[in-house]
Amino acid sequence: MWSELAKDAGGIVLFLIWLVLPLVYVVALGRRYVRQARDAAQEATCANEEVQEALDDLYATQTPQECTQPTVPAARTEEDTWRLPPVEPPERAGKHRLDPSRLAPKVASCPR
Length: 112
Prior knowledge:
Keywords: Coiled coil, Membrane, Transmembrane, Transmembrane helix. The protein has helices spanning about 1-60, 95-100, 105-110. It is mainly alpha-helical and about 110 residues long. The longest helix is centred in the first third of the chain and has 60 residues, at about 1-60. It starts with a helix and ends with a helix.
């Protein structure tokens, strides 16, 4: 009788461990990832503040002449561009016009 109870108690303990262990694992990993995310957010905030301070210092040291708008290049002139010679279309195009079969005259006479 005690052996049966020991088997049942061992099974119950294993079942409870099987139920509890994944929850403990998820909670432990979740806390670790939350801590890492908090640290990363803190580092990103500090880096953003440093960049903002550097930009503020840069804008404070620039003179109004340095803040002028960028120049836009002028339109191209004739010297800058090349003219390609015009290409004339061929007098006759298409394989069917070169084929001496009976179909060739019928296809050539079709309206487009």
